[in-house]
Amino acid sequence: MDPQLPSEPWRTWLEAGARRFLLFARDQTRSEADARDVLQEALFESWRRHGHAPPPEALVFATIRRRAIDLARREQRRERRELAAPEWFGTQSEEPGLDAELEHAVKALPPHLREVVVLKIWSALTFQQIADTLGMPLNTAASRYRYALEHLRESLKELRP
């Protein structure tokens, strides 16, 4: 038997409890994706700790809850760091309200453009590093950055005198 595949008792146990576990994970998190991630982490942790025998369901529910709390804390820390980032880098503008407008414009970018902007500006990565990080060609990273800047200029042009 392949050690990577769950044993028959695990498969039977998962089939019986998967929906209840996912429902609980959804209740503990902000999104479907977060719920699935938390559930996967909890099931993996349970499998790692208990090996061949499925754990008691109450223990899995407790693990899901802990993983959801950990995720929420990570998100809160990330949000605090992002809010503090302009202070750290001295990039706050002198015009009141412009920072909020810029943040809104960046958040409104399509995700594939936003991630390049964040990595280039706030992480100070080169286009080669961005391409390696995101698994894309160098020219794609550079062109996405250029398109993102065009989007930002367009969305912010009414703020300029």
Protein traits:
single chain, 161 residues, mainly alpha, Arc Repressor Mutant, subunit A, 2 domains, 7 helices, elongated
Provide a brief overview of the structure.
76% of the residues lie in helices and 0% in strands. The chain has seven helices and no strands. GO terms for molecular function: DNA binding; sigma factor activity.
Overview of this structure, please?
The protein has seven helices and no strands. With 161 residues, the protein is mainly alpha-helical. It has two domains: 73 residues, no CATH class; 67 residues, Arc Repressor Mutant, subunit A.
Gyration radius over CA: 22 Å
- The tally of strands reads 0
For the largest beta-sheet, the strand count, sense and barrel status come to: none
Average pLDDT confidence is: 83
* Helix-strand makeup class: mainly alpha
